[in-house]
Protein: Tetratricopeptide repeat protein
Organism: Komagataeibacter melomenusus
Amino acid sequence: MVVASLVVPLLAGIPNREMRAAPPVDPITEAGKQDLATNLLVGNVAAAEGDNSEAARAYGVAAGLAPTFRLFGERAFFYSILAGSPEAAALAHAQPPGVMPALIMGNAAALAGRWDEAVTHYQNAPADQIMGLLRPLLRAWALQGAGKTDEALAALAPAEVDARLGGYYTLHSALIAQLGGMQMRADTLFRQAAEKGSGDLFTTVVMARWLVTQGQEAAARDLINQRITAMPVLETARANLMAMLQHPVVSHATQGLAQAYGLVALLIDQQLYAHEGADEDHAGDAAMEIGTLRGTEQMMLRMALTLDPADSEARLLLSSMLHARKQDRQARAAFDGAPASDPLLPVYRAEQADLDVVLGHKEQAAQELRDLLRQAPDDRTLWSSLGDALLDQQKWPEALDAYQHATALAPHRLEGDDWRLLFGQAIAQERQNHWPQARVLLQHALQLAPNEAELLNYLGYSMVEHGENPALAESYLRRALALAPSDNQIRDSVGWVLMRLGHVAEGLPLLEQSVEQMPQDPAINYHLGVAYWMAGRRLEAVNEWQNAIAFQPDPMDRRKITAALDYAHAWQAHRSMALPADLKPVATPPSSPSQPNGTRH
């Protein structure tokens, strides 16, 4: 399901975080001015860091200090929605008319059981493309909440002919009819929805539940199994999903409202996928469009979870979206507050463990994954995640064992993303000085994923370090850099290997760029120091090695850096002494360096 354009004025009147506020016109004391300035600064910083709760709080204080300056109140409202704060409902009444205030007030009325009021708010929301998608569903479910099933079905009927989303509207009509006690009408609508088709998790569970009511339990289980095959992350919740089939999926109108917001979030997520690789920091209309889409998607998901905290798909999508924006602490927190009855709780625990690895909570992540594996010992996704956690702790034998468990559980020959399992095993083998085994694994992984820059980088770098086929290693690394020209780790690898192959003049600029981008990485500082030494720039070399030691290198790098500094000290008195291995080329370079295959920088 793709909508041509979802850039709509949902955020009209909501300030961009880059905007500069004019001085407030309210009379205010000097102390009040200082307090206002402090809270605006706190709000700006919190917003930039993705701490929406703190941003909402700080802008709320600013709004109280300068109540006639509407911008502060609008910011407080905006960030309270992004944070999923209950304060949003109270703030909505003070906002100028618009889509978001109308939706928030409608949702609050629905949660309070004031269904006629909810219908009015949803009906009065200004028209735009997203309201064109939302309004039929919101009105229908609010009418159902008010006990007006016939009117609810009539509200959805025109939307059911939509060529793109008609099946989704028909599914909701079926659920509304079922909730209203019109089972024969519901069965007809379910059959129509099945013919139109839809691919999200909610639809799968709803249709599987309906099949059970029709006496087709085997078909229902097949449907769930197909969804788990398509989404392996659901494996830990397989038993829970099967158990769901014995109970109605939707038992209250607020759940239907939540699914309406989830639909829009899914559509926006697809729109953002089309923009993958674009950067908000880039100037222009595209960056503004992406920022608007991201903000709108997050608000849709927060509203879905406010209406239905058990909306599993919304919770997963929210965490995934925050992780993609490198807001990993918030991505982990997105799983907090899920009800104990949520069937995807094991999935949330696994996702939190993966995020703990990213956040540096390695022991906690590994322990959580081991606990989950005791409940689901045949879940290869969990074994793979455990391998990642152990690899990050440099527990090479344990990581290798975890990856091998995951590989052994493959239901078919390795393919697709299975290259990551081979890659993890290769790293664990190579770090235990089992290079021949690691090389075989890396080459197998490369057959599965010939254009993975990370894989090409590791293979090429390791080949040079082990003195194998430097020309082929160089070609792997240049290819990696061509595939990921902005990856600083790959740039460092290419510069280091070029220097090791004797191409000092070509490798040195790449290493200097790497240090500029990552000035406190001890391995990169060490590499640049070696390049400087080989270029005859001795003082600069020693300076880089001293920097590298100060940046707390791992034990292996520390030994190399210490050896280089010891050599530099001894060299002052004995310039004829032998070079350490890293300070001399690994092979005789060709008479003229080969040219890179593609973009270098």
Q: What stands out?
A: The two ends are 37 Å apart (CA to CA).
